[in-house]
Amino acid sequence: MADNYDISRNPSDLPKSKGITNEDIFSTEIDEEVYERYSFGALLPEQWIRKHGTTDTLKNITDNHCSTFYDRAMELMEKRINYEEALVNVNKCLLLKPFHIPFYEIRSEIYLNLCDFQSSIISLQKSILYTQVTTSNSRLSRNEQQSISKPVTPANREDRLTNDKIAFLRYVSGVTLFDQKLYLDALGIVANGSNIFITLPFQIYSILCLTALNKIEEASTLVTQMIEQYSQNADLLIIRARLYYKDKDKVFIEELCTFFSH
């Protein structure tokens, strides 16, 4: 017998013959026969129903939206216009798929085009972190005990390339701040980079920043350490000689000031 009432009505208004049982205990309870008359599909939005009767999964919906945002971001990047909107679309992709590594690399490139070096570096660092986590989890799932007992393997080629990108971005960021005469900020970035990436350009710019900040003694100490490391580099000897004479001029001026102050 078909029902002649709407299930959306308050069940307490229905007569007992329409499915309400034991009104004294649970006055709003509907018995199982009423539930069985309504299929679960009838409660879903019509646009979620496919032709073959299957419903879209959350993964399909996420993939479709993510693909739309990704295509829009790549279109804007190829045209080299409106990087801000491209960044918004990539961030939407990351909200849907936060562990998809290529999205972080794309976002880093967008930040680089916006001259936001620090954000570009952070995006690349996140890509390395999530890559290591994903690799570690897959290794543990294959053989947990053996993987735990083994030492951590060195970074693969992709990680090394990403580290090279980070080194380049740190260097460019430090040079940009130095050109703007923000010597202390430049020193913080370049010195941090020189601790991670032991390369001559980082150390040279550390010396330049220290000299600009009138930290001659610290700069001379750093040059001396570099000469021990790069003994065949004659330019370092010239730099140390110039710092030596600059320091002597500083001492001479201080002595004159002291003399005339008495």
Automatic annotation (TrEMBL):
InterPro entries: TPR-like_helical_dom_sf (IPR011990)
Domain of life (superkingdom): Eukaryota
This protein's name: Uncharacterized protein
Organism: Rotaria sordida
Lineage of origin: Eukaryota, Metazoa, Spiralia, Gnathifera, Rotifera
